[in-house]
Amino acid sequence: MASASDVRDILSLPHPSSGPSQPKKLVPGTSRKPEGISRELYSLIGDKAPTLVPQFTRPKFKQKPVFGKGKVKWEWKSFSNPARADSLRLSHWESDNVKDASYRFAQYNVEPPVYTYTAEEYTRYLEDPDWSKEETDYLFSLAREYDLRFLVMADRYDYPGKIRSIEDIKWRYYTTCRRLIRNRPWAGDDTSKNQLLAAYNFDKDHEELRKTYLIGLYDRTPEQIAEEEALYVEIKRLEQVERRFSKERDDLLRTLGGIESGLMGLRVDPDAATGLPLDPKRKKKKGDGSEMESPLSAILPLAGPSQPKRKESVKQPSNDALHCMIRLDPSSIVPSTNKSSHTPVYLRSTRLPAPKANIATKVAGVLAELKISSTRLVMPTQANLERLEALQTAAVGLVDIKRAVDRVEQDIRMMKARLRGSEPLDGQSMDETGVPGVLMIPEDTSRKRSVSVSSTGTAATTRTSTNKRRKR
Fold it and tell me: Is the model's pTM score more than 0.90?
């Protein structure tokens, strides 16, 4: 059966593609799904979320190594270890790419430096009554042979007639090295020398004591271990009980004493702390009664019916005197304006009033002349502190009076110097005080007149009259 294209060819009809081209309509949802996203998820989000595509792409892992490309030829080679003193030769497999014939593990054979000494140095610095020169030489030969492994040295130590512990071997070796370092010439600075000496320091007694403790700890029996654990648990329990008792005691003191207990963490009414009258609005909120709630109000319902307040004992003054107690007048205590502040316990000797800074040195000097310390008393009782405070007050007054007297004397000296600065004229006389007085002018015998210095004022005029009478 002929198809549509064959019919068009027979009838000489043009094909649809030969006509004018029309834009193809894009079918929605025909975009390709990116890799790494499932079909269901992509059908939900579509192609409008390009930022999510990199999150679902497959991670690029490290490329797998490719084996079998390069062949390595191995050869059986003999070698000698330069770390050995003998001429022993061994063999091992090695690739033909290695050109260096030296044994590569010889670099790890690091030998610690072992000091050597001469016979003269031993005679001058290293002699010890418990160690002979032959035994010291034997010790240093073991140190070189076993690379300062003291455990091996103590195990191999076999000197005739001597039994040495590892602490004895260490002490002798390190002491010998320190003496050699200290007495030989040193090319570097003192800091590097001291560091090297500290590296060779060894405390034999401390090491023996440490090992004794470790042996005692290791040799404990199971009963002793159980007893120590029980004691440790008991100590922890006692510490917890003590902390709990201390907390309960502080709470009780806060409840009973309030702000006068001197403890921290008290909730104080600001009106009660400052001594101000209560606000009427706050009174209404608290209740009809005008009395304030006290710290005891929280425990009064638990204590049962209220009991009448006991009167103060008549023996209270005698009791206070017996126990050296001094009670202050509550009205003399200045209330604090801070809500959370209170007056803790303090020493009376720390609250002495200090003089002003400008006269403190002079007051201290006055007290030092009396051989009294202004900062410390041997017996700072109340009576002694009151006397010291009175003495300080008197010393301050004395210093103030002395300053006032010095100021007046200085003014007098300045006035006298000012008066002496004006030179007297011819015929001018000086009175008994050294002040220029009267200038006498010769006139008729029947009449004489005196001229006084204008700066002297009325006093000078009075002295002029007196001099006139004397002249007559």
Answer: no
